[in-house]
Design brief:
- Strand 1 and strand 2 form a beta hairpin.
- The chain has a three-stranded antiparallel β-sheet, with no helix packed on it.
- It is globular.
- The protein has one domain.
- The chain is mostly helical and about 450 residues long.
- The protein has 16 helices and three strands.
- The N and C termini lie far apart (about 60 Å).
């Protein structure tokens, strides 16, 4: 009747909601398989197959392509799946480039160049703060997906898959572990630092993601109580019923009481639900905005890539050339990860093969680049190396989605198995590709 969803929420009545849904969570009695339930609780429908983060973010889950010729904005190019895909691609490209720039900037801010908080040979590896920040915002985004995604689906997709996915990087973390393990016998205790970096690299993003979920929940309750409820007497009454009942209830019973108190025409943020969901064939405003979004995001994506290409050609600084090239390559890494998630994440019951494949490919790419760097290095090869590592590999691999998938797996043995398989596979392949070259120099 119920289960855990992609974002760590429950699937009830055929849909998934993040964290604790105010409308659909079961009571403890339902969890125990009995017939009893709270007053007014409807029978749950059969559970639908679990969706991946990429599938839930896809605009095709929210917008139905027009079949009736009623809305001029659902005809021609702007009413086709090509328009939908282009809009998704443009938004992910823009947000992906922004994610790469923020990742590089935070890496420099906390790195030895400025803040000297992180370093290449410390357990506080260079991209630890970046992975923490990106995972936090992923938690906030997953918690607000039911409030934002129906109205701003492209922005939500770009923010989660593009920005958070590119801001965090699995491959760079894995590569720094490889380098520290490879230097383990140089008398600086690199083995111990690498082991601690491995632990921190998992624990800090997991905590940051959970903190993001809790932050969203706290903000949501503040908005409902102090912003929405004073303007809506019906919502205020329901919220007071929930507050009066929650103190004596368990977590699941509290969630059921919340659902009963806020049941009706409100979403989890206290907004009244529209009579018709956005995106229908007769929703001219929605489709007009979609057309504008296609043109605006496309122009912005092209302008950002063109500006980065000009930077590669004209910037005299070698390091900055590598950063500009990373911006040019970043959208390709985002697209690869997005498509892998869409087509592979549902192939296995508990192992998201799409995210796993993206992280493995990104880690293997980094290991190959750093291995080649040991034997051949010149001005332009260094620029290309930086572009590949920070651009394609950094955007293709992700920590934020990885920890979100660990959190949503309610069977702990499968979550630990997924984490163990991912880390072991990338490290073993990295040792074969990079470690052998390092040790045979």
């Amino acid at each position: 009747m119920s289960g855990r969803g992609e974002s760590g929420g429950f699937i009830i009545n055929g849909r998934e909601d993040s964290v604790l849904d105010l409308d659909d969570l079961p009571t403890r009695r339902e969890q125990n398989g009995t017939e009893e339930d709270l007053e007014g609780w409807a029978d749950a429908e059969p559970q639908t197959p679990r969706e991946s983060l990429a599938e839930r973010s896809s605009l095709q889950r929210n917008v139905t392509i027009a079949e009736e010729v009623l809305n001029p904005y659902t005809q021609g190019f702007f009413g086709t799946s090509i328009s939908v895909k282009l809009n998704e691609v443009f938004h992910m490209a823009v947000f992906g480039i922004i994610g790469v720039l923020v990742r590089i900037g935070l890496g420099l801010l906390f790195g030895p160049q400025h803040g000297n908080v992180t370093s290449d040979d410390s357990a506080l590896f260079v991209y630890l703060p970046v992975n923490a920040v990106g995972s936090f915002f992923m938690g906030v985004a997953v918690g607000t997906d039911d409030a934002i995604q129906p109205y701003l689906p492209y922005v939500h997709l770009g923010f989660t898959t593009g920005l958070c996915g590119s801001l965090t990087t699995y491959a760079s973390w894995n590569q720094q572990l490889l380098e520290m393990f490879a230097r383990g016998n140089d008398g600086t205790n690199q083995w111990l630092r690498a082991l601690f970096a491995l632990i921190l690299g998992l624990e800090v993003p997991l905590f940051s993601y959970t903190l993001g979920l809790h932050t969203e929940k706290s903000i949501r309750h503040f908005v409902i109580r102090y912003v929405r409820a004073p303007r809506d007497p019906d919502l205020a009454d329901r919220y007071e019923q929930y507050r009066a009942a929650r103190r004596s209830l368990s977590m699941l019973e509290e969630a059921a009481a919340t659902a009963a108190a806020l049941r009706g025409g409100h979403d989890r943020w206290g907004l009244r639900k529209p009579d018709k969901p956005p995106g229908g064939d007769d929703d001219i405003v929605f489709h007009r905005r979609r057309c504008i979004a296609t043109v605006a995001s496309g122009a912005l994506a092209v302008a950002m890539v063109a500006l980065a290409a000009i930077g590669v050609a004209l910037d005299p600084d070698q390091t900055r050339k590598g950063y500009w090239l990373a911006c040019v390559m970043a959208p390709f890494g985002v697209m690869i990860r997005w498509q892998l998630g869409l087509y592979l994440n549902r192939r296995h019951r508990w192992l998201p093969l799409g995210t796993f494949a993206a992280n493995v490919l990104g880690s293997v790419g980094d290991a190959a680049v750093y291995g080649a760097r040991l034997r051949r290095n010149s001005y332009w090869t260094e620029v290309v190396y930086q572009g590949v590592v920070n651009g394609i590999d950094g955007s293709m691999s992700t920590i934020s989605t990885f920890v979100a998938e660990l959190q949503r797996e309610w069977r702990l043995r499968y979550a630990y198995a997924y984490a163990t398989i991912s880390v072991t596979t990338t490290l073993m392949l990295g040792f074969l590709i990079y470690g052998v070259q390092k040790w045979t120099l």
